[in-house]
Amino acid sequence: MKRIFLSLAILLAAQIGFAQEEVAIEQNINQRINELEIYSGWNVHLIHHEADSGYRVAIITEDDLAARAYNVQLCNVKDQTLTILENTQLPRGTVVEIEGPMTFGQINLLNRAMVEADYVVASAASVPEDLTNLNLSKHSSFHVRHYHIPNPDNSPSMEIWDHAQLTIDTISGEGNVMINVYEGDFQYSTNILRGKINLCEHENTSDWPYKQRDWRVIKTKEVDGELVTTDRKKVWNDALVLGVGIGLQHGNTPTNPNSPFLQYNTVYVNIGFTTYFKLGNRWGLRTGLQWNENRKSLCHQVKYENDELIVVDGQGDYQRNRLYNLYMGIPVSLDYYLGKRQTESFSLDLYCGRLLGETLVTSKDPTKPFGLVLFPGTKDHLDNIFNPWKLEVGLSFSTHHLGIIHGIRVFTNLLPEYKPGVTTDKFRSVGVEIKL
After folding, report:
1. d(C-alpha 262, C-alpha 264), whole Å
2. What pTM does this model have?
3. In this structure, are 252 and 327 located in the same domain?
4. Which residues have C-beta within 8 Å of that of residue 156, sequence separation ≥ 6?
5. Residue 409: inside a domain, yes or no?
6. Same domain? 27 vs 92
7. Which residues partner with 61 through β-bridges?
8. How far apart, in Å, do the first and last CA atoms of the chain sit?
9. Residues 6 or more apart whose Cβ sits within 8 Å of residue 50
10. Exposure string (b/e) for 33-62, b if CB count within 10 Å is 16 or more?
């Protein structure tokens, strides 16, 4: 047994004797640095020194790699930007230390960069407002033990991309943080920030790079002398989305074939702006303001006389007629999203509109176009022909996989199309709209 212990002791002493000592290959940067850019291959440690005006940059490696480390071009400095170049000569994960005031206006971690810091001070006011103050590219990692925002003027914006990870143990100070996460990860442990963290999570889709999935507001408030953190989802997405739809309506056939309201079809055009409210994991509500125009191609030659439409005998000059009406109203849509990525949805919608105008267009030249854009001929502004109100109900399916086509909608008008007394027919129609 004594021989075994003696052998182990000799082996341990030999290992200690052959252990490599760490060496630091240093260089000093005696100027202000406002932007930090880090490439991959290193394990970068940011060490904050408040009083220092310059920076010490060092490769920490073993003694037998010191000669190779001396020949490595570690960094360059240009226009107050310090760039740590990619490691292509030393073992991956070799430690690099950067000592100095960690008050950068912008920090960029390139693909697969690995960084940890003891203390970082936000300095967003030192760079243009349109720049992202902290940007983590694909598969990069940044662990900050303490992140401090000194005042609201330095409120930073952050972006985390494609499996990158930002971990903050403690965040403090006064101001707000805007964090956009694009298939990445953000974690924090302690929040003593007297402001709010806006965390917006996005996901990749097939036809559009990223789609907003979730929005949370994390903020603190003082309760009985202590700061309490609240974390809630933001219900209202305060962005406006432009929507365009084109469709056809069929129906509205009068019982009398000689009626002036006999038509071939109705072209239906919608243009509107909507905003979105998130009601749950799969439910949402949209509402806004919508402009709706209907263009009816009439079968008979008609004229507007004594506040009514009259069919002409057709023995005179050739003419074509169309009826136009314009409504402005409020759409409300209840959406249910499908699938893991929620790129498809079914919607039940209601549209309530008020009539703004109605016109009879008459063309007497068969050689001129009479399409959707060009309206040759004379116009008679009608009065009291169409119902002053419209109440539509529709069912739609939306998707992100059909290019410029974003969905299809089937709808009907619950109210009579024409004003009571104009016609005795109870018109009913069904329309199909393509969403663009």
Report:
1. 7
2. 0.56
3. yes
4. 122, 124, 133, 134, 149, 175, 177, 178
5. yes
6. yes
7. 23
8. 85
9. 101
10. bebbbbbbbbbbbbbbeeeeeebbbbbbbe
pLDDT in the model for residue 377: 63
Domain count, the chain: 2
pLDDT digits (tens, 9 = 90+) for 190-249: 888 888 888 888 777 655 566 666 777 777 665 445 545 555 555 566 667 888 888 888
- Tell me the C-alpha distance between 309 and 382, whole Å: 9
Note whether 151 and 274 are same-domain residues.
Answer: no
Where in the sequence is the domain holding 306, given as residue range(s)? Answer: 238-435
Q: How far apart are CA 139 and CA 210, in angstroms?
A: 17
Residue 69 within any structural domain of the chain = yes
Whole-number Å distance between alpha carbons of 122 and 106: 9
Q: 392 and 421, same structural domain?
A: yes
Indicate the residue among 206, 234, 262 that finishes a domain.
234
Residues with Cβ within 8 Å of 339's Cβ and at least 6 positions away in sequence, in order, are: none
Q: What is the DSSP string of 259-272?
A: -TT-EEEEEEEEEE
Query: Under 8 Å CB-to-CB from 31, ≥6 apart: which residues?
Result: 54, 77, 80
Q: Is residue 152 part of a domain?
A: yes
96 assigned to some structural domain: yes
Helices (H) and strands (E) in the chain, counts: 2, 30
